[in-house]
Design the sequence.
């Protein structure tokens, strides 16, 4: 039997393996790339609907057409389409005008019942864009709560306002062209705005995929976020996310001046991209790369000034309207301050205010709390045993701003999506948070509908805000845990330190001599 067994083994080894097709001449494989079908249970289960995970002996990174980037961008288009359909109910037209003239049909509180509300539609008339007016120059009067009359202007930062103006010009040109499909001008305007915002989100997804490096498939969570369906076209924030992620990509590619230009443009659309200079500052301070940071910061400041200065000089009152309104507005329904008020009956830090009176105490408290968050993040960045990654600190800073600020408009959550995916690529956890955040829209709309119209009481809405805030705090806690336990960080892999780091990637700690010992790394992970 021993001889037979030996003979059997010998014959097996002599069998010639035949491939069903000629083998490729180049059989290199990107084995270092993360394969979600093997490493993530959720992805493995989802992939079973299209044939299962990629084979263990497959060559990775050799697909000619359906590359990860193209698949992710295709998924983004699908979800942006769903986002458009979620808002389409609010651009329906009906014969509601004089003599049956067509008009926008928001009868029966359609915007809340259908949950299709978008700021884009009412702002077309409210900002006098329907008159062809130039933002910041055009003003109008609105009655105040006390009966006084206030002069109002465009309330958005300059780049967002100019984007609305440009979209209006395109919509009016489309409407004037008899050979193009017609419709209500406001509906055409919405579609023009949505098209530009969709392109901006595709840029966000593209930059996120490049920033993800070996974990390119993480960017699919940016493309397929439930928040895209609900809020992609709620407002104009996708402009800022495109510039913010583009700026981070330029930083990662070691192009500090371009990074500053893009962050400056983002700051001219929404202020939050300029906040990303903060994490870069403390990380460059720790690593002795302040010259590079200075180039980025000066480029951002110069770009912001180039965009804003002409409007500020020509139309100073219109330019200042954004800052005036943000100073005078009270606590937003989504803010923690309003949540406390709704459950306790608290009248707020400032009590009852007269019309036009700024909540100065609330402004000061929210500012001080955000400063405290910044100080805490800087302490972590400077003293953690291993230098934190750029995306980790950027997420902590933007999340801290939203949690402490008096305004958290629902679409602001889109700011967090690419940062969260790059900072904490745990797909099930991120998907759970995004789903919770997206679902806050449902009680919000029903609360706006009003109890008298079979809507929900305010506390149903604010209770979901609490759940959303706790989910964001949970993400912050997990990121802090991974900062202090870098071995649990899925992004760090072998030779990979920080894909978004740029000049910070693989950098040794080199803080300035004047930095006190208590603000230096506790334990150095580098050897001299």
Sequence:
């Amino acid at each position: 039997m021993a001889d037979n067994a030996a003979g059997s083994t010998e014959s097996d080894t002599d069998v010639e393996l035949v491939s069903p097709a000629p083998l490729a001449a180049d059989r290199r494989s990107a084995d270092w790339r993360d394969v979600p079908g093997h490493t993530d249970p959720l992805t493995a289960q989802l992939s079973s609907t299209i044939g299962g995970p990629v084979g263990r002996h497959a060559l990775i990174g050799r697909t000619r057409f359906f590359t990860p980037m193209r698949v992710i961008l295709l998924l983004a288009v699908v979800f942006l389409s769903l986002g458009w359909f979620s808002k389409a109910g609010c651009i329906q037209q009906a014969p509601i005008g004089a003599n049956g003239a067509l008009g926008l049909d928001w009868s029966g509180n359609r915007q809340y019942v259908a949950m299709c509300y978008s700021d884009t539609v009412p702002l077309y008339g409210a900002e006098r864009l329907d008159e062809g007016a130039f933002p910041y120059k055009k003003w109008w009067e609105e009655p105040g709560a006390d009966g006084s009359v206030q002069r109002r202007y465009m309330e958005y930062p300059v780049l967002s306002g100019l984007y609305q103006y440009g979209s209006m010009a395109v919509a009016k040109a489309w409407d004037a062209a008899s050979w193009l499909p017609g419709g209500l001008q406001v509906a055409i305007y919405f579609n023009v705005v949505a098209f530009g915002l969709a392109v901006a989100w595709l840029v966000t997804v593209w930059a996120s995929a490049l920033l993800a490096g070996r974990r390119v498939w993480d960017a699919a969570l940016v493309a397929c976020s439930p928040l895209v369906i609900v809020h992609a076209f709620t407002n104009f924030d996708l402009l800022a996310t495109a510039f913010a992620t583009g700026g981070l990509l330029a930083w990662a590619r070691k192009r500090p001046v371009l990074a500053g230009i893009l962050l400056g443009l983002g700051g001219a659309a929404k202020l939050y991209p300029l906040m990303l200079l903060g994490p870069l500052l403390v990380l460059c301070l720790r690593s002795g790369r302040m010259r590079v940071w200075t180039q980025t910061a000066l480029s951002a400041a110069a770009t912001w000034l180039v965009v804003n200065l002409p409007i500020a000089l020509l139309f100073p009152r219109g330019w200042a309207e954004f800052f005036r309104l943000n100073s005078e507005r009270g606590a937003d329904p989504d803010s923690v301050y309003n949540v406390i008020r709704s459950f306790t009956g608290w009248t707020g830090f400032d009590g009852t205010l007269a019309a036009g009176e700024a909540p100065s105490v609330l402004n000061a408290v929210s500012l001080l709390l955000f400063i405290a968050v910044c100080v805490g993040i800087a302490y972590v960045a400077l003293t953690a045993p291993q230098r934190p990654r750029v995306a980790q600190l950027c997420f902590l800073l933007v999340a801290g701003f939203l949690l402490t600020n008096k305004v958290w408009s629902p679409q602001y959550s889109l700011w967090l999506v690419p940062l969260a995916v790059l900072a904490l690529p745990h797909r099930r956890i991120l998907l759970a948070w995004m789903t919770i955040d997206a679902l806050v829209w449902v009680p919000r709309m029903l609360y706006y509908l009003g109890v008298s119209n079979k809507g929900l009481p305010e506390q149903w809405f604010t209770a979901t805000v609490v759940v959303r805030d706790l989910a964001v705090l949970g993400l912050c806690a997990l990121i802090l845990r991974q900062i202090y336990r870098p071995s649990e960080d899925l992004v760090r892999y072998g030779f990979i330190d920080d894909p978004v780091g740029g000049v910070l990637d693989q950098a040794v700690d080199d803080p300035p001599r004047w930095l006190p010992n208590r603000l230096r790394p506790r334990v150095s992970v580098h050897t001299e």
Q: What stands out?
A: Confidence is low (pLDDT under 50) at residues 1-13, 524-528. The longest strand covers residues 140-143. Strands lie at 93-94, 103-104, 140-143, 149-152. The radius of gyration is 27 Å.
